[in-house]
Amino acid sequence: MLARIRFSIPDRPGALGRVTSAIGSAGADIAQIDVLESESGRALDDVFVRVRDVPHLQRISAQLAALAGVDVTGVQHPAPPVTGHADLGLIDQVLTRPERGLQTLVDGAPHCFGADWAALVEYGPDLATVNAVLTVSVASPGPEQVVLTSPLRLASVRMIAPGAPEPFSGTALVPIGPGPLALVLVRSHGLDFHRSELWRVGQVGQIVGTVLVRSEAPTG
């Protein structure tokens, strides 16, 4: 199972080496390490690890959290692909059949960007409020779960489903071109969307938006 652990460490030589050594000693294989940011003397990294099962992942996460100076900020499983070409693959699928491109985007984006489900929404003329939920991905709990109060912009936003005590762990709002459409990506548990992830999905939204027209939006 491929999982992702996000952690903060002191930004100094040897700090990352202690983390990788701990992961190796716990019997996991490292697939990839992404440096998300480095500021104020600390670095925020994502490490993608191959583990046997959830208990194995939990042991590794606890072992990392016990290291001096290491702060585990979140864990996600399953993790998104680490090949580096998932974005391009999704765009190719969307553009191959543009007549259903937006539905393809909604169905494929969760796997590509490590979300649990997605939705396509349409904003009103002022781009401040959502007029309609046009479609949702297969794994979605339903369009009624999409309750947005944020204006249309590329951002990590807070979204709470009706009756839920807590917001979803991560919700990304992604404009599709210059019009009123937006992709909503939701992580029910685990990690919020970092700004580097927002940039990636934002690029996909821009490319798709320049090719697909509003008349191709699915209706359900």
Automatic annotation (TrEMBL):
InterPro entries the record matches: ACT-like_dom_sf, ACT_dom
TM spans (from-to): none
Pfam family, one: ACT
Record-annotated ACT domain positions: 4-80
Protein name: ACT domain-containing protein
Taxonomic placement: Bacteria, Bacillati, Actinomycetota, Actinomycetes, Kineosporiales
